[in-house]
Automatic annotation (TrEMBL):
Organism: Poecilia mexicana
Region of interest (Disordered), ranges: 270-294
Protein name per the record: Adaptor related protein complex 5 subunit zeta 1
CC per GO annotation: AP-5 adaptor complex
Residues making up the signal peptide according to the UniProt record: none
Domain (AP-5 complex subunit zeta-1 ARM repeats) ranges: 343-460
Phylogenetic lineage: Eukaryota, Metazoa, Chordata, Craniata, Vertebrata
Segments of skewed composition (Basic and acidic residues): 273-292
Domain of life (superkingdom): Eukaryota
Positions of the AP-5 complex subunit zeta-1 C-terminal TPR domain: 472-818
Transmembrane portions of the chain: none
AP-5 complex subunit zeta-1 N-terminal TPR domain span: 1-267
Coiled-coil zones: none
Length: 822
């Protein structure tokens, strides 16, 4: 929300009248015509931006004012460039003629002007023209450099290529590949900005440029990279930095270019290489000498000068390889500043990712690259502060480990084992690791199928910060459900709030010394440190599957964590569990056999009473269980007969009517619906009678006495479902009809005598009695009752509109001809 002052200014900007606005335009025009633009002009431009941006509809500026704003794009003061660009973005796109004038004058372009051209491009043709203009501007730049800097060009060009990769042509790829080679490999190695060594003789004639330095303070003895430091930088050094930041995207982009001109270009390579030998600039000659003599700092430079004979793309790959190898070597140096250490980590991530792209493009590079990557992993694997670097190394191993014939087991144990277990509270790593899993699911299934074993570990990210990573798990979960993990995964998802509480206790246990009592007096923290309960918490914190589906003392664990039920992190975690359970059940029915589905039904019945006591959590889980219990039984009706003993045991427990109302109602419904010969031929009269007697006993008990203390009356839905189930069972075994009819008769008599203790609402009681009378009436005609209460499949799924033996298709065809003219 805005402050009151801001709200007032925005309101004034929205309600400004047209006459007042025209006066403001005129005053601003006079200010812009002055030779020196001062604070008043700056303030007026800010006011104009507020007026334009506060309005929902774009305002059209007077043409002369728009021309002045366009001219401000080339102002020497950057604040005017920023403001004019922002103002023009708020207006309808300028005419093509005006934009073309800006675009054609490449020497006057800057970051803000080029950004405006990108934002106001009206078609891909405009983007193509801008792309070509920028590339040819970079190509035509002399080596000594004009007075106007073009360092803005690469970032803008990168934006254009992200929007429209098809803007590139084969000629553009050749030009940019050559320029990247020059900027990456042959940037100046002396400091810019007139840096000198100081001393007594520091006059202009004795001032000598200093070489760039490494992050550890030593003099840089090899070519310039982003990890070289100095008091100032030359323009080609800045282009080196920009080139490196764009390099990975470039390597991924230029493959989309059609190779129609590749044959023509191949004939030019040898001629260009020969010509370059004749006009080799001093930088390249110096590089050639280092290639022959060798460098004491790095062996990266020791490559053959014949690399210049390669086509531009292959030469760029070679120079990219050298650049990244030098970066990895520079990252081995101890930086003098902490910020430089973070820079080294970022550069290592980018270097490894770029080498991965190079090896994907040219598999022959794998054997040259793998030794350095393997050495880097060996050096960093013991330090988890380099986790993001190690994750990029894991990507390299995943893509190329099979070709290099290396064992990746140690990599997966580190990335899937230690990372989530010890860095579960690192949001950046959580995002990166889960993205790694999502993007590489197919490759992981093929080359590292053991990653599924670490499911309990991955869920620690969800338990710690569920709202941030739930979207990732919505995508990941279906891939992690297999027949081997299905049962354990169900238990683990249900225990997710317990895991969340345990991670909080683990975090507090480390940060709060044992000798120091907790300010809140957390009993759960004492229990976490108690060796007697250590096994319970260690099971929740397990790294891999296979330790068992669940634990015997779940109720004890829930008691220990009772005070965590209102912790915000635990509550948020509990809110995402129903969402994930829906995804889980939707997936498991596609991969599980009937035996596994039967086991899952038993787990649902068991765990419906073993949940952490969080407000609304149990109710939401019961709703999910009820929904998918119906779905499983409808998919496999024989499951009801197979698991009839367990289902009857659950339905025969009267306490479940009050504590698990939703699940209980659906269990009773599936018993009444699917306990029949039509669902499973092994269903016997004895089983139907046993089920009838069990449900009859429960219904009689809850309708003959008041509910237990501390509970409310059972919902009418429970009672009517029990009545319907008894009627269905009686229609399949006619010997039971007198018993259920007698019950309905007693129910009607009890209702006529006045209020009853088991139903608090009179309307509900009337509805229950009405349902009983309807069922009683049906049972007086057993044949009709069975057809109505248990209709055959062809009645449930009619195809009358397709059956040619009936009159309905003929009638439909006649009506169609009458209502639709030819």
């Amino acid at each position: 929300m805005y402050s009151l002052g801001s709200e007032s200014l925005i309101k004034q900007a929205r309600e400004i009248q047209e006459a007042e606005l025209q006066k403001f335009y005129s005053r601003l025009m006079k200010l812009l015509q002055l030779k020196e633009l001062g604070y008043e002009t700056l303030d007026s431009l800010h006011r104009l931006h507020l007026i334009l941006s506060a309005n929902k509809y774009a305002r059209t500026l007077p043409s002369d004012l728009q021309q002045r704003l366009l001219s401000l794009l080339s102002s020497p003061a950057e604040q005017f460039q920023v403001l004019s660009s922002a103002l023009l973005r708020e207006t309808p796109p300028s005419s093509g003629e005006e934009l073309n004038n800006i675009q054609e004058n490449i020497s006057q372009l800057n970051t803000h002007a080029a950004g405006l051209l990108v934002s106001q491009a009206r078609s891909r043709t405009d983007l193509n023209n801008l792309c070509a203009q920028l590339i040819h501007g970079l190509e035509g730049r002399p080596s000594d450099g004009p007075t106007r800097s073009l360092t803005f060009a690469l970032p803008v060009l990168n934006s254009v290529l992200r929007l429209s990769p098809e803007s590139l042509t084969e000629e553009h790829v050749t030009i940019l590949s050559k320029k990247f080679v020059d900027w990456l490999r042959y940037a100046s190695i002396v400091q810019g900005g007139g840096a000198s060594s100081g001393g007594f003789f520091t006059g202009p004639r004795s001032r000598q440029p200093l070489p760039t330095a490494e992050l550890d303070g030593s003099v840089s003895g090899d070519f310039f990279t982003v990890l070289c430091v100095g008091q100032g930088f030359t323009e080609d050094q800045w282009m080196n930095v920009y080139s490196f930041s764009m390099l990975r995207h470039w390597l991924l982009t230029y493959h989309s270019v059609s190779s129609g001109n590749s044959t023509m270009d191949a004939g030019k390579y040898s001629w260009e290489a020969g010509e370059k030998d004749e006009r080799t600039d001093p930088k390249e000659k110096g590089d050639d000498r280092s290639e022959v003599d060798g460098s004491v700092v790095s062996m990266v430079s020791a490559t053959s000068s014949s690399s210049r004979l390669l086509p531009p793309k292959e030469r760029l790959r070679e120079k990219t390889f050298q650049y990244c190898q030098r970066l990895i070597e520079q990252c081995d140096r101890k930086a003098q500043k902490k910020s430089d250490t973070e820079l080294q980590k970022a550069c290592m991530v980018e270097a490894v990712c770029i080498l991965d792209c190079v090896c994907v493009e040219d598999p022959s590079m794998v054997f040259r690259t793998f030794p350095s990557i393997k050495a880097l992993f060996g050096r960093l694997s013991s330090d988890l502060s380099y986790a993001r670097v190690l994750l990029s190394i894991a990507q390299f191993y995943l893509n190329h480990g099979e070709m290099a014939a290396v064992d990746c087991e140690c990599v997966w144990k580190l990335v899937f084992g230690r990372f989530p277990a010890e860095l579960f509270n690192d949001p950046f790593l959580a995002h990166e690791l889960l993205r790694f899993l999502r993007q590489n699911l197919d490759s992981l299934r093929l080359r590292a199928p053991e990653f599924i074993r670490f499911l309990p570990n991955f869920l620690k990210f969800l338990a710690w910060d569920s709202s941030a990573v739930v979207d990732d798990f919505v995508d990941l979960l279906p891939s992690l459900v297999t027949e081997g993990t299905a049962v354990e995964m169900l238990h683990t998802l249900l225990d997710l709030p317990c895991l969340s509480a345990t991670l909080i206790l683990q975090f507090r246990s480390v940060s709060l010394p044992i000798s120091e009592s907790s300010s809140r007096g957390l009993l759960s923290l004492d229990a976490f440190r108690n060796p007697a309960f250590r096994g319970l918490f260690l099971f929740l914190l397990r790294v891999e599957t296979g330790s068992g589906h669940t634990i015997d003392r779940l109720s004890t664990l829930h008691d220990l964590l009772a005070e965590a039920a209102d912790w915000p992190r635990v509550v948020r975690c509990a809110q995402v569990v129903p969402v994930l359970l829906h995804i889980y059940f939707n997936t498991v029915v596609t991969v599980a056999e009937e035996k596994l589905l039967a086991h899952l039904i038993l787990v649902m019945l068991e765990r419906s009473g073993l949940l952490l006591a969080i407000p609304t959590y149990s109710r939401e889980i019961h709703r999910v269980f009820s929904c998918h219990l119906l779905r499983l039984c409808k998919l496999r009706p024989s499951l009801v007969v197979d698991q009839s003993h367990e289902l009857l045991e659950f339905a025969g427990t009267t306490a479940n009517v009050y504590s698990k109302e939703e699940v209980y109602t659906h269990v009773v419904w599936v018993l009444g619906e699917y306990l029949s010969v039509s669902s499973d031929s092994s269903c016997s009269v004895v089983l139907i009678t046993s089920c009838f007697e069990t449900l009859e006993a429960v219904l009689f008990e809850i309708t003959s006495s008041a509910p237990p203390p501390g509970t409310v009356c059972p919902a009418p839905k429970v009672i009517t479902t029990l009545m319907s189930a008894l009627a269905k069972l009686a229609s399949r075994s006619h010997d039971l009809i007198p018993r259920v009819s007698l019950f309905f008769s007693k129910l009607r008599t009890a209702a006529r005598n006045g209020s009853v203790a088991w139903c608090a609402d009179e309307e509900d009681l009337v509805a229950i009695v009405t349902r009983g009378e309807e069922l009683w009436s049906l049972l007086k005609a057993p044949g009709v009752a069975q057809s109505v209460l248990t209709p055959p499949p062809h009645v449930l799924t009619p195809r009358w509109h397709r059956d040619t033996n009936l009159a309905v298709p003929l009638q439909l065809r006649v009506l169609t001809r009458l209502t639709h003219s030819k």
